[in-house]
Design brief:
This protein has 592 residues and is mainly alpha-helical. The chain contains 26 helices and 7 strands.
């Protein structure tokens, strides 16, 4: 504890003596190292668990023993989340986007460790999911809470949150540009952004730490690719289109499975975990490469050594049986989405980043092998395997630049940059035609809960109805005299007065500008009552209305004040003036 306090004192001193830019660069490095450390710890834990599982399987000399480990992992994850994390596992990158749009980038401290614990158990025990999403969430939580400790502004908090995510992704792949692109394409969507240097230093710090500590067999690296042949451009374009369609299949299938587990299956969390775990066991029995992240199988295909994925298979396939091997690979890329979606929906923790790469690798191998088998042309299988990984990642995550630079960096060069661009953009465009938003954020965008590339809409979404609700108003009763109304108006600083009956039920409102002439006319004062001066409108605002709905009501009513209700009870007014002021404040907050 004393060490932490000393650390904070040092940074407080630096904060007071460095310029804003210098302190942000230093902060980016510190957040990057912290997020990179979290990524390394998570990868090492999963790696060690896998080694222990392999040892246990060899010790008992029963090759199908590991089929039940994913079930055990999901059950333990559900128990840990329920008992120790109190149901707040915070999984999914969408949760970070929700924090940015709904909570000004303030992320719960529990997310610093919750995803590391939950995903390490799920994936370590063989759950068919990825670690990149959890690492991005963990890094974002580190950056956000760092900014909170030093009371940095909204803009700086979002920057450091993004630095954490970038560093986490960079550390996983030893790919700093990939981390940078991920932060820009996925985390900072719809956010005005200009501070690139801290983001770059953070990504580099995470990647450098990963390179120093992690062994090459843990890192995601490939060697021995063939050069790019321009004659294969039509096949790369066809691959890109098909990757887009496979991405749509991935997204829609995943959402249907998620809907089934969350809405149609009326079981408790442990029964869902048991059911999902048994299905994963069956899928891993039929297709062993579905066990865990599957990066070892991806490396085997990319190195054109597919016999590695045939170990412990039910069908006892041989490399010489090419058509059976191709069919087997094709079934695996189709089954992967089921394995991942069931793992996550039944209570496991993880992400779709690694599964999309896995699906891409198997689809790319399948596509190029079929073309070669039909003897249309001789395609480089390893190249198509890797390029398809970029295609599926682009179509599933809607992050084409992330996909391009990831494959470019893990292959150690940019020899495939042209086919990567062709496949990535083709897949992205095709996926966008069928689904405007990625599977992770689709339901949140529909509910206007997260940012999109519409900047004005994002600013409006940041405004909360309670921020613009006016509760401070004067009250007149419908059977009061005009003399009493004049007293209220003299004492009030507002232009609007609420009218109620003596049961405190809302009756309407009186706007002083509209009744001024009446109140100043002595003859009318003796003939009119308060009830006759009440204004009413058919337009009402519900506390659950979105800002878009409120703006639409102002446009239709042409009013400057609209009454607001909660559960049928009057709670105040929304004024157009206050709404515009809130918009200006949010605009100033994001650009200052």
């Amino acid at each position: 504890m004393n060490l932490i306090k000393q650390h904070q004192l040092v940074l407080k001193f630096l904060y007071n003596h460095l310029s804003r830019g210098q302190f942000l660069i230093l902060s980016g490095i510190l957040v990057g190292l912290s997020a990179g450390s979290a990524a390394i710890i998570l990868k090492l834990i999963v790696h060690k668990i896998h080694q222990l599982i392999d040892l246990q399987t060899k010790f008992f000399n029963y090759q199908y023993l590991n089929l039940f480990f994913p079930l055990i992992g999901i059950l333990i994850t559900v128990w840990v989340v329920k008992v120790f994390l109190h149901g707040r596992d915070g999984k999914g990158v969408a949760n970070i986007l929700l924090d940015i749009s709904q909570r000004s980038g303030v992320t719960a401290k529990s997310k610093i460790y919750s995803q590391v614990i939950a995903s390490a158990i799920t994936v370590g025990f063989g759950g068919s999911a990825g670690l990149e999403g959890p690492i991005a969430v963990t890094g974002a939580a580190i950056g956000s809470n760092y900014a909170r400790v030093y009371r940095l502004s909204y803009r700086e908090r979002i920057l450091l949150l993004s630095c954490g995510s970038a560093a986490g992704i960079a550390a996983v792949f030893n790919a700093p540009i990939t981390g940078l692109m991920f932060a820009i394409e996925v985390i900072l969507v719809g956010v005005v952004f200009s501070d690139f240097i801290p983001l770059i230093t953070s990504a580099v710090s995470g990647a450098l730490l990963s390179k120093i500590i992690l062994d090459d067999d843990i890192l995601f690296e490939f060697k021995g690719l063939t050069g790019f042949d321009y004659a294969n451009v039509p096949y790369y374009l066809l691959l890109g289109v098909l990757c887009g369609l496979v991405s749509v299949y991935y997204a829609r299938t995943s959402l249907k499975i998620e809907h089934f587990f969350n809405h149609q299956l009326k079981w408790n969390s442990f029964n869902k975990a048991l059911f999902g775990g048994l299905i994963i066991a069956l899928l891993c029995f039929l297709f062993p490469p579905l066990f865990g992240e599957g990066y070892s199988s991806v490396k085997a295909l990319a190195s054109e050594n597919p016999q590695e994925i045939l170990k412990n298979t039910l069908f006892n396939l041989h490399f010489d049986n090419n058509w059976m091997l191709i069919l087997f690979v094709g079934l695996i890329f189709l089954a992967k989405v089921f394995a991942t979606s069931i793992t996550l929906s039944s209570g496991g923790s993880g992400g779709n980043f690694a599964p999309s790469l896995f699906t891409g690798a198997f689809f790319g191998f399948f596509f190029s092998s079929v073309i070669n088998k039909l003897e249309f042309v001789k395609l480089p299988v390893s190249n198509f395997t890797l390029v398809a990984m970029c295609g599926i990642l682009s179509g599933v995550m809607y992050a084409p630049l992330t996909g391009i630079f990831l494959i470019a960096e893990v292959t150690g060069g940019y020899n495939l940059i042209i086919p990567l661009m062709l496949v990535s953009t083709s897949s992205f465009v095709i996926a966008k035609v069928f689904e405007p938003y990625s599977m992770d954020v689709k339901h949140l965008v529909a509910g206007k809960k997260i940012f999109t590339d519409d900047y004005d809409q994002n600013l409006l979404n940041m405004i909360k109805i309670h921020d613009i609700l006016e509760k401070d108003f004067d009250v007149i009763y419908s059977d009061d005299s005009l003399a009493q109304l004049l007293i209220v108006i003299r004492q009030s600083s507002r232009n609007i007065i609420i009218c109620k009956d003596h049961q405190e039920k809302y009756q309407g409102f009186i706007i002083f500008d509209k009744v001024r002439k009446v109140l100043l006319d002595p003859e009318l004062q003796n003939t009119l009552t308060v009830k006759e001066l009440i204004s009413k409108t058919k337009f009402q605002i519900n506390i659950l209305d979105s800002i878009d709905e409120i703006i639409l009501k102002f446009e239709k009513s042409e009013l400057w004040y609209i009454p607001a209700f909660e559960d049928g009870n009057f709670i105040g007014f929304i004024s157009k003036t206050r709404l515009l002021s809130a918009y200006r404040d949010k605009l100033k907050q994001t650009i200052s």
